[in-house]
Amino acid sequence: MMKTAVGWHVELEFKEDDQHTKAAALVRLPDGSEIRGHGRASRFRTDANQPRVGEEIAGARALNELAMQLLDKAHEEIDQASGRTSQPIHI
């Protein structure tokens, strides 16, 4: 039988101008820690102005950074619990 232990909420915020989009991602973990990731996207001056596309690219990059930090955190916790150096976790 599977039981649900916890849920996570991820927040994404965007700041934009005519050619740049910045994204910030935040997840608060049950252990009280917070992990943040950042991403950017730029529009070439001759491209159509599509803010949603910039948000998708910058958001994906922020979430990717957040995911890599979660993998690093898990790797460190494995090492601490086992008392040895484990193999890096790759995606």
From TrEMBL:
InterPro entries: Rv2632c-like (IPR015057), Rv2632c-like_sf (IPR038070). Gene3D superfamilies: Rv1738. Residues 34-53 are annotated as: Disordered. It comes from the Bacteria. Pfam families: Rv2632c-like. SUPFAM superfamilies: Rv2632c-like (SSF143212). This is DUF1876 domain-containing protein.
